Amino acid sequence: MAATNSKSVANEKPVWFITGCSTGFGRELAIHLLESGYRTVVTARNPDEVNDLTAKGEALVLKLDVTDQGQIDAAIKAAEDKFGRIDVLVNNAGIGYFAAVEESEEDQVRRMFEINVFGLSRMIHAALPGMRKRRTGFIVNLSSVGGLVSFPVTGYYHATKYAVEGLSEALWQEVEPLGIKVMLVEPSGFRTDWAGRSANESKRQIDDYASTAGARRSQSRTTSGKQPGDPVRAAHAIVKAIESPNPPHRLLLGNNAYEAAMAKIEDLRREFSAWEAVSRGADFPKEEQEEGA
């Protein structure tokens, strides 16, 4: 495994730590890892929802709310006391929110940022010291194709995922020289009950947005549980990518994610090229730059 190549642990499988294991990606990833013989720290705000996973392998089940620094510190310590280290941190915990930007309620937006961005950040801060000390480790941040492409009704959700993308891109430049890898996972629609269980919506809905935000809100609710993405295959894909000799910085999951990301690249290329002269014209002329040097 690319992330854990130190001689002292060469003959041991990596220790994984996953946030948000009650449902969806977190649960399926934990199941796959435990059934494959990995020691796995399985966390959830309500541990009763994941206690059944202890029957599948060497699991340490812990209570963890990523907005609670005390619980984070206690979980990291418990994991290191039990297994000696954390090799792979998977920041999976996250929620959504359906609202046009103008409809959005600040308390709901702030709660989402607390979980999706600051919760993820707290976990990174807690796990990195041990990884730096060992000069090995892997941080996996669950983003979304919505961290690359935005759609109506999930504007502030996209804002959280764009934040995760920017943070992760800076992070891998800082920690890769220390032997630590970072990977963003960017899924499209998967059958994780995200829209049904993990995404609130605004109390106020404005008629002017019925054909944009309103239409997509309805579509997201009605297609929940019918998405093309398979969480089990996604779990296998994540492990395969991490165990590869050259793990990607970004792992798209699902046909829709791949197609949307490629279309975004083409849109950016087309618009940037069309405005190239104006963009380049904003600098001082070269002769003035040389004079000021």
From TrEMBL:
Keywords: Oxidoreductase. One of its GO terms (molecular function) is oxidoreductase activity. SUPFAM superfamilies: NAD(P)-binding Rossmann-fold domains. Pfam families: adh_short (PF00106). The keyword Transmembrane does not apply. InterPro entries: KR_dom, NAD(P)-bd_dom_sf, SDR_fam, SDR_oxidoreductase. It comes from the Bacteria. Residues 14-175 form the Ketoreductase domain. Residues 194-232 are annotated as: Disordered. NCBIfam families: PRK06180.1, PRK08263.1. Belongs to the short-chain dehydrogenases/reductases (SDR) family. PANTHER family: SHORT CHAIN DEHYDROGENASE, SHORT-CHAIN DEHYDROGENASE_REDUCTASE FAMILY PROTEIN. This is Short-chain dehydrogenase/reductase. It comes from Massilia psychrophila.
